[in-house]
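INTERNAL AUDIT FORM
Audit reference: QA-55
Scope: verify that the stored structure record matches its stored sequence.
Auditor: D.O.
Record contents follow.
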Amino acid sequence: MTYNQAIKYLFDAAPMFQNVGAAAYKEGLDGTLALDEYFGHPHRQYRTIHVGGTNGKGSTCHTLAAILQAQGYRVGLYTSPHLVDFRERIRVNGKMISKKRVVDFVKELKIENGKLKGNSIFNLQSSIGFSFFELATALAFKYFEEQKVDFAVIEVGLGGRLDCTNIITPVLSVITNISFDHVQFLGDTLPKIAREKAGIIKPGIPVCIGENINDEVKAVFANKAKEVGAPITFAESPLHLPLWGSDLKPALTGLCQEKNTRTILTSVRLLREQGIEISDNAIRKGFAEVTTMTGLMGRWQTISTKPLTICDTGHNVGGMQYIVKQLKSIQNDRKARLHIVIGMVSDKDVSTVLSMLPKDATYYFTQASVQRAMPAEELAKKAQAIGQFHNFTIYKDVATAYQAAKANASEDDIIFIGGSTFIVADLLKSLPMR
């Protein structure tokens, strides 16, 4: 079995939310608990940090991992989704899990319609169904044990309370922020979403809340922490401003990273208070070298300088507000034309995101190569209905749209590619460096 065959088998046998959306969503922890028991509860062999929230989870996870690596710890990192290669999800000290280890894991599985069948090595009841994410999580937790990591930084997949990563007992829980996303699963109000995210708050385990959205959401977290006896710290509180200084030179420069930085620094302080050694130099190095130390891609990533070409995985209202603000700032400073290559998935608040975008840009509507992608023609119709999009064209794929933007832009212009994680993924796959 080749690596590509193994990945195809895994994706086909247990549908991936990344590709198909709601059809792949599986609520509850039964499958994860069964897999965890079979593997001997590997996550208990190392310390974990659990990171949830709506936006900023990935950047926070990667930066915390980089800081711990810089201190000399051996660090596992589990994030989702991947952009180019499944193995991006599972790393140790920045190095992706080997193709052989993925193949070996998949060869052991006998899956049919998401369930392990017949003489499966797991010897589990055939009535237990497994999602792609449950299997990926089981592989990650086992791999980190095999690699004898000191810490594993674990990103919540979706929500928190019922997410399959929520079987761990971390040394620290982090909730970056709350915004509208996945409302069909998590609820249609911010307090409802907050209650699902608050599900990762554990008895007696310190929790850091990154961004205060409003008093009602803050109360959800405070009440949950009080209920389970978890010490809670709000990173935006003036009483808890940590190491907020000019000596940090972060590699991640998007506007949203200002709030992420405060969340990360507060988290580091809470780890230090538990006796975990983290030097100031490790903090500086982690921030400055996060992309090279952990392989992070797609966060306000510069693809080219002439014209200035940037991609970002922000894909919901909360993420897009920072992207639009930063694009307008750069456009005003450079007095340049703005070209936006954009596509979205159908289960997002597409109309609201579109209404936030600059009116004076040239648009290239496109679609990603996943089933969840909204057809480019449909996206263009929604844009026309809003009435502020007058200069646009439609393209069948991201690579073609990007090439059109490059052809139309002068060296002094700005090109932005985004609207969806999967748009950025298709872009990066199409670049020569890949």
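Auditor finding: record pair retrieved intact. The first strand starts at residue 47 and ends at 52.
Action required: none
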